[in-house]
Amino acid sequence: MQNHRVIDGKAIAAQVRDGVTKDVERLKSAHGIVPGLVVVLVGEDPASKVYVKNKGEQTKATGMNSWEHRLSAETTEADLLALVGKLNADPAVNGILVQLPLPKHINAERVLNTIDPNKDVDGFHPVNVGRLWVGERTLVPCTPTGSVILAKSVQPNLSGMNAVVIGRSNIVGKPVSALLLRENCTVTIAHSRTRNIQSVVKGADLLIAAVGIPEMVRGDWIKPGAIVIDVGINRVPGENGKTKLVGDVNYEECARVASAITPVPGGVGPMTIACLLQNTVEAAKMQHAIKD
Ligand code: NAD
Ligand 1 atom 5: the closest Cα is on which residue? Predict the structure, then answer.
């Protein structure tokens, strides 16, 4: 029996990118501005290299400028901070993203906090975290924004829903909770110390799972008819010695109970870069004091 809806992150991400492309055209024609994103990669992490390549290609596809700085793994923190300072001062650069993880000898927090908050397209700078919680215009972290767009694709008005977020990281759990509060949900944040998490999750009309434990959430945790957004990306052993990707939710079991659910892969994953592009346009607008 399949009466649940599978939320198609790929298709919705494509819609977001189309919106960005239109916005970029408008910024060019009405204001003569071409937004630009710089991605800085330090070292040779293979997964990071793939992400950076995808980000560059998708940025160019929307008509924006895209630049990459690839630095060796031996780059000093001082040199990286100097580069960030130069990019902060460059008016052609609207967004700066320093790809994580950074090599161990570099203090990632210090680097991220050096990025001009108005160019911080990851939305991790404490100034932007503060702006999000007080409800000011700001740059919001990408994966949380994407998760809320997916939930709203099912239920455009989330007001009054009981939302449970599993995870309290600065990258996903906390910012997605702030966004859901802004949507007028009643938000519960569950985490590694939560007692009887199963019964907490059972109260959720909307569940956001951002834990990093493969298939932790089981079918009998889910309230019938709930919307389930699975942020988790976990590599587990698959067939023929290969690895496969699974989420933090047991998809087969939860899909039987939920009204709508995101698959892994193809759910939240594709939304992250799409929202990064959206943030780059928003950063350009904020820097030029353009309202919409
Ligand atoms: P994290 O490790 O920083 O945080 C995990 C959170 O889960 C913590 O706050 C912790 O309290 C909570 N937790 C740990 N064990 C728990 C348990 N047994 N019960 C309840 N809560 C528990 O991870 P993160 O960066 O927030 O990422 C979470 C997941 O989302 C990972 O699988 C990651 O790969 C994925 N992710 C996906 C994207 C994307 O683009 N789709 C982006 C970022 C992260």
Answer: 211
Of 83, 116, 149, the domain-final residue: 116
Together in a domain, 176 and 101? no
Cβ < 6 Å from ligand 1: which residues? 143, 166-169, 171-173, 190-192, 194, 197, 210-213, 231-234, 268-269, 272
pTM: predicted TM-score of the whole model, two decimal places = 0.97
- Tally of domains within the chain: 2
Per annotation, catalytic residue among 23, 55, 58, 230: 55
Which pLDDT value is given to residue 33? 98
How would you classify residue 151: left for phi > 0, otherwise alpha for psi between -120 and 50, otherwise beta?
alpha
Dihedral Cα 9, 45, 123, 208, nearest 10 deg: 40
Helices and strands in the chain: count of H runs, count of E runs = 10, 11
What span, in angstroms and rounded, lies between the C-alpha atoms of 134 and 129? Answer: 9
Give mean pLDDT, residues 247-260: 98
Q: Which of 190, 231, 194, 199 lies closest to 214 in space, CA to CA?
A: 231
Q: How confident is the model at residue 255 (pLDDT cuts 50, 70, 90)?
A: very high
* Residues 260-288, mean pLDDT to the nearest whole number: 98
CB distance 59 to 35 below 8 Å: no
CATH number, domain containing residue 75: 3.40.50.10860
What per-residue confidence (pLDDT) applies to 2? 56
Give yes or no: residues 151 and 258 share one domain.
yes
145 and 84 assigned to the same domain: no
At residue 4, the pLDDT reads: 82
Is 149 inside a domain boundary? yes
In a domain, 89, yes or no: yes
Of 120, 122, 230, 248, which is the active-site residue? Answer: 122
